[in-house]
Design a protein that fits this description.
The protein is of the alpha/beta class and 336 residues long. The protein is 49% helix and 13% strand. Strands 3-4-2-5-1-6-7-10 form an eight-stranded mixed β-sheet, sandwiched between helices. A two-stranded antiparallel ribbon has the order 8-9. A hairpin with a 6-residue loop joins strand 3 and strand 4 (95-98). Helix 1 (15-28) crosses helix 2 and helix 1 (15-28) packs across helix 11 (306-335).
Length: 336
C-alpha cells in the first residue's frame, strides 16, 4: 500500500479534481483505492457523494468521517483507534472514500502543540502518529493498494502531518504568478517539515502511534486550468508554464534533493511535470452535476446532441487519454 498526498497551499489549483480523477482512474485499472478528504471544506466528499449524499451521511451516520475517527486520540479516550468504515464511491467496488468533516480544523491547535514537545511530555506523543495509524489500519481492513489524500490549501499542522506520513506527494498548480510564489514557499516549508520529522520519528518511537519511518518523495507536479488552441496552450499560458517549470527546476528540486525527498534523479527523465490538464470548459458543469470524472461521463450525461455531442465526446476522449497518461506516469515513478 502506498500513500500519495496532493498538496499546494495555494487554493484553486485543482487539488480535489486531480485527486478524484486519479483515484477513479486507478480504480478503473483494477486497483483498490481509498480517497481521504483531509480538507475542512470537504469538496472531495461533496464531489464523491453529492451534496444530498453528504448531508444525509451527516444525519444518519455522523461518526463516519475523518475527525470522528481520530477523536479518541485527541480527546484522550483510552481506546485504540479502529479502522474507518469508509464508503464506496458511486457504486464502484474498489473505490472508497473516508469522508471529511468541517470541524477537523479543531485539531490544529493540539497537533501543533504536540509538534513542539520534548520527550518529557508523554501524554501528547500519540497525536502526530495517529493519522498514519488510522490510514494503515483502514487500508488493511479494505485491502487498499493506494491511498490518495486531498489536503487543504494552507500550511497547517494537519497538512504537515499527512505529508510526513506519505510515501509520495504531488503538487497540483495553475499557470499564474501566484503558483510560482507558492513553489518558492514550498521549497522552504516542505524540507523543514521533513527535518522536524527526522527528529520526531526518534522522539515518538515509543508512543502507541509512532510516526512511520518513511521519507516522502516528490513525484512531480501538474499544471491545470489553462486554455488551449489547436491542442496546445495559448501563447500567454505557454510562457507562464515554461516559467513555472523553470522555478520548479531551479528552486524546488535543489531544496528537496538536499533532504533526500526526490526519487533517483534519472527516474524523472528530466521532466517533473506529470501532466498538463487544460480547462474542462463545458464539461465542468457536467462533472459537478453528476459527480463523475469528465472521462467517465456517459453520452446521456453529456446532455447534448449533434455537433455539440460529438465535440464533447472528443473532449471526453482527450481527458481520458490525459488522465490515463498521468496515472501511468505515477505508477512508473512509484515502480522506480
Amino acid at each position: 500500500m502506498k500513500i500519495i498526498s496532493f498538496f499546494n497551499h495555494k487554493g484553486g489549483v485543482s487539488k480535489t479534481t486531480t485527486t478524484y480523477h486519479v483515484g477513479w482512474k486507478l480504480a478503473q485499472m483494477g486497483k483498490r483505492v481509498l480517497m481521504v478528504d483531509a480538507d475542512s471544506q470537504c469538496n472531495l466528499s461533496l464531489t464523491a457523494l453529492g451534496d444530498d449524499g453528504y448531508i444525509n451521511l451527516a444525519k444518519t451516520d455522523p461518526k463516519n468521517n475523518i475527525k470522528s475517527c481520530l477523536e479518541s486520540v485527541f480527546y484522550a479516550v483510552p481506546e485504540l483507534l479502529q479502522p474507518a468504515k469508509c464508503l464506496k464511491v458511486r457504486g464502484l467496488n474498489n473505490l472508497y472514500l473516508l469522508p471529511g468533516n468541517f470541524d477537523i480544523s479543531e485539531f490544529e491547535v493540539q497537533l501543533g502543540v504536540s509538534f513542539q514537545l520534548t520527550s518529557s511530555f508523554s501524554t501528547m506523543k500519540n497525536l502526530p502518529g495517529s493519522f498514519s495509524y488510522l490510514l494503515q489500519k483502514t487500508a488493511e481492513s479494505l485491502r487498499i493498494d493506494y491511498i490518495l489524500i486531498d489536503l487543504n490549501p494552507s500550511l497547517s499542522s494537519i497538512n504537515q502531518d499527512f505529508i510526513i506520513s506519505s510515501d509520495y506527494f504531488i503538487i497540483p498548480a495553475s499557470p499564474d504568478y501566484f503558483s510560482q510564489m507558492a513553489i518558492r514557499s514550498l521549497a522552504r516549508i516542505i524540507p523543514n517539515w521533513e527535518k522536524w520529522a527526522d527528529q520526531a520519528r526518534v522522539l515518538f518511537q515509543d508512543s502507541t502511534y509512532p510516526l512511520p519511518k518513511i521519507k516522502p518523495k516528490f513525484l512531480g507536479y501538474t499544471i491545470n486550468n489553462y486554455t488551449i488552441r489547436n491542442g496546445e496552450p495559448t501563447q500567454a499560458f505557454g510562457e507562464i508554464i515554461e516559467q513555472f517549470d523553470e522555478t520548479v527546476r531551479t528552486v524546488l528540486i535543489p531544496s528537496l534533493e538536499a533532504e533526500s525527498m526526490l526519487l533517483p534523479i534519472d527516474a524523472y527523465q528530466d521532466n517533473y511535470c506529470l501532466a498538463r490538464i487544460s480547462s474542462f470548459q463545458t464539461l465542468q458543469t457536467k462533472y459537478h452535476k453528476f459527480g463523475k470524472p469528465v472521462y467517465a461521463l456517459t453520452d446521456k450525461e453529456l446532455e447534448a446532441s449533434g455537433y455539440v455531442l460529438s465535440t464533447q465526446q472528443e473532449k471526453r476522449t482527450f481527458f481520458d487519454e490525459t488522465y490515463s497518461g498521468l496515472v501511468n506516469r505515477i505508477l512508473m515513478l512509484i515502480d522506480k
